[in-house]
Write a structure and sequence with these properties.
single chain; N Utilization Substance Protein A, Chain:P, domain 4; OB fold (Dihydrolipoamide Acetyltransferase, E2P); 4 domains; 5-stranded mixed β-barrel; 4-stranded mixed beta sheet; 13 helices; elongated
Length: 402
């Protein structure tokens, strides 16, 4: 019977993809538990499996006494000497107890413990598998909705897509196949809980790694990602090889690579820009598709003033400020956008609003003071406006975009 039992365990280990050694330890613990419960013993039971793995033995530790009060914990000197001829009073011996002595209740208890331990081993195996894959992209199938949660099948377990990780514009229909970003794996009393996301910015990073060989082999690097889930995203890419165009690699032939990512994200727009170590150049690139004329940097406050052509001001800002907002997240700089006309108008207003200090009045009291002030102001004001307009030329903290 022992051999058949162990063969059944081997079959279970193969079907459940469990380690056989771990399952043997489970059986040992189950038999110990069953014996203790059936015979009301404490810690005097041990289970050993021989090296050939084709039989097991249960041993009970019994003390040699003159008068037996508990046959499960004590043994007479006569019986002890049948096992060990040198046994003495008070000595502790290990007596083999076969599982058949457990009876029906003991066998049922052992079965329940074995099933429970197998279930726990499976849960631990699943937890370890997914805990090692945190921050990866997995493929799952939408199964059902419960309240506001979406449950996605990932083989042997269902992952939870909570409301805050869902994109409001995505349908999540039954049996839809989705690529999801693994956020966390947690142990609970009911088994592991796997939490996934469709809104995480790194989802786009991982999707491009799957679609673009140059990214997966390290030639092209995604430096930063900014995303407004379901609407628009920007990624900044850099190539370690001067012969490889990072933007072209991500776009692919006729846009095939970026289109595959867009389709997976249900039509979310993606801007791919070139990363630069020069912050001014990077900010200008990040505002794509708008073209910047000049970028003035304020290193102390980590802010930038960007001047764009009049006809591209709305394009640079984007719908509801989306383009400039994403550019700011992508670069990590605070960005202020102005058109050429706005800069010129602001400069002229600043020049004309300066208070005028009249020159000393002449000794001739017949000349009108207001008339002198007016004439002098016109002349001086014109020169001040011309000087102010001239100051728009690039300075040391500015960059002009050609």
């Amino acid at each position: 019977m022992n051999g058949e039992f162990l063969e059944a365990l081997q079959q279970i280990a193969k079907e459940r993809e469990l380690a056989q050694d771990q399952l043997i330890e489970t059986v040992e613990a189950a038999l110990v538990h069953a014996y203790r419960k059936t015979y009301a013993t404490s810690d005097n039971v041990q289970v050993r499996v021989d090296s050939s793995r084709n039989s097991f033995h249960v041993f009970c530790r019994k003390t040699v006494v003159e008068d037996i009060s508990n046959e499960h914990c004590e043994i007479s000197l006569e019986e002890a000497r049948k096992i060990d001829s040198s046994a003495e009073m008070g000595q502790v011996l290990e007596v083999e107890v076969t599982p058949s002595n457990f009876g029906r209740i003991a066998a049922q208890t052992a079965k329940q413990v074995v099933v429970q331990r197998i279930r726990e081993a499976e849960r631990e195996k699943i937890f370890e598998e997914y805990n090692q894959r945190i921050n990866e992209v997995l493929t799952g199938t939408v199964q059902r909705r419960e309240h506001r949660n979406i449950f996605i099948a990932l083989g042997k377990i269902e992952a939870i897509l909570p409301p805050q990780e869902q994109v409001s514009t995505e349908p999540y229909r039954f049996n839809d196949r989705l690529k999801i970003y693994l956020l966390e794996a947690r142990r609970t009393t009911h088994g592991p809980v796997i939490t996934v996301s469709r809104t995480h910015p790194s989802l786009i990073r991982r999707l491009f790694e799957l679609e673009v060989p140059e990214i997966s082999d390290g030639t092209v690097t995604i430096k930063s990602v900014a995303r407004e889930p379901g609407a628009r995203s920007k990624i900044a890419v850099f190539s370690r090889d001067d012969k490889v165009d990072p933007v072209g690699s991500c776009v692919g032939h006729r846009g095939s690579r970026v289109q595959a990512v867009v389709n997976e994200l249900y039509g979310e727009k993606i801007d791919i820009v070139r990363w630069s170590a020069d912050s001014s150049q990077f900010i200008a690139e990040a505002l794509s598709p708008a073209k910047a004329i000049r970028v003035t940097m304020d290193e102390e406050n980590k802010s930038a003033l960007v001047i764009v052509p009049d006809n591209q001001l709305s394009l640079a800002i984007g719908k509801s400020g989306q383009n400039v907002r994403l550019a700011a997240r992508l670069t990590g700089w605070r960005i202020d956008i102005r058109s050429e006309a706005q800069i010129a108008r602001a400069t002229l207003m600043a020049a004309t609003s300066e208070p005028f200090t009249p020159e000393a009045e002449p000794e001739d009291s017949t000349q009108s003071a207001p008339e002198n002030n007016l004439n002098t102001g016109e002349t001086d004001g014109g020169s001040r406006i011309a000087d102010a307009v001239a100051e728009i030329s690039p300075g040391t903290a500015e960059m002009e975009i050609h």
